[in-house]
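Chain X:
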Amino acid sequence: MSFNSTIPLTESTLSGKALDFYQDLSWLQLIATITVIVLSYDQIMYQIRKGSIAGPRFKVWPIIGPFLESLDPKFEEYKSKWDSGPLSCVSIFHKFVVIASERDLARKILASSKYVKPCVVDVAVKILRPTNWVFLDGKAHTDYRRALNGLFSQKALEIYIPVQEKYMDLYLEKFISFDSPQKFFPEFRELLCAISLRTFCGDYITEEQIKLIADNYFRITAALELVNFPIIIPYSKTWYGKKIADDTMKIFEACAGMSKKFIEEGGKPACVMDEWIHLMKDAREKQTDDPDMKLLVREFSNREISEAIFTFLFASQDASSSLACWLFQIVADRPDVAAKVREEQLRVRNQDPSKKLSLEMINEMTYTNNVVKETLRYRPPVLMVPYVVKKNFPVTDTYTAPKGAMIIPTLYPALHDPEVYPDPESFKPERWENATTQMLNRNWLVFGTGPHVCLGKNYVLMTFTSMLGKYLMNSELTHHVTPLSEEIKVFATIFPKDDLILEWKKRDPLKN
């Protein structure tokens, strides 16, 4: 007698079969199975997130993506990404990155605080501290920012000029004293660090502390590169970066304490910290009904002040060093530009080269200022600004950036748009004499736009206009050109690949 029997597939039966299958697998087979699942998931998620935008069809290097290439970023590789389409993408480890290269898309992202917030890089929150004001969002960020606006007003900028001029003079003497050509990438980093720290902290910071911060600051930059290992491992780049950032903020915290004591005792502001604390004291004493002033009534702690001052240094140091390198390379290679700057400097000083700088005088340096602006356009220090997507972001009608992705508006293409800046690959300060609205606003993304536009843009233009004028008036520059002089090195910001080899000689400022 024969019969067919059908056994129902119950939950317990399926569990048993799965267990039998698992037990039959060797460790090698198990590892291979898990690897296939993980790699498949990684590729599938990449395809889903990529959608229709430009980017590699598949992740050639599973999981890590182009991580190894990004350890040595190259400007040419970035540019090929921008040229591949208005939106493109890469995926590195767990992070999906969307790159926007078109002007209007970049502006949209920079202005969309509802969908995005600054992220710098994954470890930035740990290094800059999660309590730092740059990571605030919405109204909290707006209110904090309004409290800082007074630090870069015209009145405040005038306060900072004497200390800046003092350190410009000190370093000019140093540069002229060199008896042979030098690489000026490290020299300009030290100069700009000293000027920034004295402007921010006045005499509360010592020369030894300035040297310590200047010598070590490059480790913070290395820790905050666009692509870095997201976990802080002892003795890694990120570990050193965090340690030095913490030590630097402790110095700033002590400086804030000394500044508070000085201002409370009736001292007159001479640096950014002084001005901030003076504004707080003034608002507290007047108890004004002005909403902007009411924000300053809140007593910012020494720790909050130290964190904000550190972000000023972080925002300015590498970008300023980059600008200095390109600015002085460009004018050294263009005697006609240098001659026009020197002529203007004597004119605004009424032929008295020893005349001290003032904001009124700097505002008269129109051509010198145009040289600085054209350098910022021609070689913008900051190429891209990373943001993180807070919620699904409809960037275009056909593409939505997924929540958690990094989205990066790119600034370089807008500044080299031939329709707005004719012959964009040529250096032409004269183009700013009749600047259009697009040149000045729509395409002028050097300092960003929207709620996170750079607070110190007027400070930067003031500092470099005065520095360029003073240095060209009092020195002759010789650029020792190498095959790498015009090649672009990317290290957070951009620099000449040969680190700029310059020779300085003292010059009679009244010489024709």
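Chain Y:
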Amino acid sequence: MDPDFPLWLRAMHLMNFVLIGILLRSGWEMLSSLPRLWWRNDCAPGTEWLRFTKRKLPKEEGVYTSLMDERSLSPLISLPGKKNIGLGRHWHGLGTTLWLINGLAYVILLFATGLWRRIIPTSWDVFPQAWESLTIYLGFGKPSIEHFQPYDALQMLGYTTIIFVVAPLMILTGLAMAPAIRSRFPRYVKMLGGHQGARSIHFICMVIMTLFIIMHVSLVFLVHAEHNLPKMMFGSDDPARYAQAFTVAVAMIIAVIAFWIALSYISLADRPRMQRFLVAVTEPVRRVAFGWMKPRNRNQTAYTEKDISEFHWTNGLPPTADESVEWLEMRDNDWADWRLHVGGDMIDSSLELTLDDVKALPAHDYIATHTCMQGWSATSRWTGARLEDILALLGPRPATAKYVMITSHGLAQEMIDHRPREPFYAVIDLETLHEDDTVLTYSRNGQPLESHLGAPARLRVESNHGYKMVKWVKSIEWIEDYSVYGDGRGGTREDSALQAFNGRI
């Protein structure tokens, strides 16, 4: 048996192959929901550095939504495919968790057993030797077997770069795209170029990782396969086992690819059931990793007026006559007739607040970056009243109230089963309610809120993605159990797009 390829290493290598496929395919599903990449955080039309769509963006705000830009990928390519970003995000979260566990165990064992020397160079001679190997490969040759101990210098540099540079950078940029991180540690996110900088770097690392995997698998079969395959499959240095190792390797690759594709079709066969499963296994990690992070946008100094975006995307258009004649009439009367219903069935009394009533409450003013779960972002100064202060006007919280439901004058863009559209709503828990940056805003950048961004008042929940931030707010109510509303998943985007109730990442 070859001591360079113990059983634990071969098992982790296989597991890594399976998990990387889940990460890449779910990542492509997420990218297809907004197939554009920017370095600018305002994602202004025409400023993309890369796009995977021929569709050009209009320059005017509020006429084009991010859902209009969404593309559908085949389940053969992405996980799960067919415009299911919610499930794609859940699979990405589960894949990331398992990949991190597997990777951490791999690195620990690598150093504990001394096998780190097999991939980490210990001499500067690795660079001229790597150059020599590269020239041989470019000439469609292959270095002699003596260059491999068990890898040649070029492979060693490649492994070291992927494991200790590219993979950590993917982790760091992935974390930077989480609202919980951004609202708690804004300087960290800004250091990476903001949300769009992190997203673009993450994409570049993904491309590097993909190319490395293709090249690595190809070299296994093309360069001294009679030695490589027995080692990788059986931990044996016996070339006589090459045919057996080749057969097992090909069968294993086919089986893994079939497994990836099967995950897509199993997910699409019953999307709500898959959402329940994925949320159940990922929510504990989400709560432990991000639940303790509280936003502090009011006190942060990383983002200033200079960072305010010139352009702001939207997801959803203002209510039409088919959705809410009431909202249109209030808009045309400059919101003089707007009333915010505060209360719910759990209490005996309720309030009907005017816009002036909301403005009379202590103003909460801060600069924050909004992110949509599809990937776009924009930075604005928001002003409004804390949701907790509004509900306090009702008196003590009902003893059995566990959540707050916020409902819009607008309707859902599409229901999961294509039934008639229902009012858009979101539910937040008490922990999120008590955060300082859970605010009903009425002003953006010192001006009244624009119609396409939620006028006259919209919810801001800075620790979460934008799908929790209801626009054109109609009512705020105490509730005991969100499972009896809508499809019972805690919000319109949870119901229709199968997002997670906890939108912190």
